[in-house]
Amino acid sequence: MQFAPCHDGRSRKAGEDARAPALGDWAFRSPARCYFAGVPLLRILVDGYSLLHAWPELAEGRARHSAAAREALVHELTQYHDATGTPVTIFFDGAGAPKGTPQTHSTREVEVLYSRAGQTADELIERAAYRLSQLGEVLVITNDYAERDTVNSFGGMAQSCENFLRMIGTAHRDMVLDLKEHNRRERARFKQPR
User: Fold this and answer.
1) Residues 6+ positions from 124 with CB-CB distance below 8 Å
2) Distance of CA 15 to CAs 20, 78, 109, Å?
3) Are the C-beta atoms of 104 and 88 separated by less than 8 Å?
4) 40-172: CATH number
5) Residue 108 pLDDT more than 80?
6) How far apart are CA 16 and CA 86, in angstroms?
7) N or C: fewer beta carbons within 10 Å in the chain?
8) pLDDT tens digits, residue range 148-159?
């Protein structure tokens, strides 16, 4: 499998197509930071409860629909964003949450959304995936086969929670290795005579 080019954070020149890669704006990175050949990701859309059910080690001993489990998931996906630079939106079914359930703080990079009464997180994910796919590639993470089929039917990309958990593990390992290498270089630089 070829690795996808990932955006290196620089802005585009005026008049350039935002969806087309510009020479010099893309750098090859590890598979944890890229997803499919030639496809930079605009955003990852995560079915929060689907991922929580696939990740029993996260917030062990806590109910999968608990605030503690949601907070742990948001924390892990924030670290994933920090390692990869890809924005993440986490969707939860909010209509079933008890009144007074604290809403998790959202940022532009890691957004947390709850569905309202009468709608499901799946509907929100499908709508967001369709709209965002007009701007670039979006990856949906869910174990719901019908939802993945729907996203794939309009040209979006979808992946199982288990595959995404492997990507999270790889991104975490890559970040740890990058930090070790950075620290090694800094120690060597510090030890050099001035």
Assistant:
1) 91, 113, 115
2) 11, 32, 25
3) no
4) 3.40.50.1010
5) yes
6) 21
7) C
8) 999 999 888 999
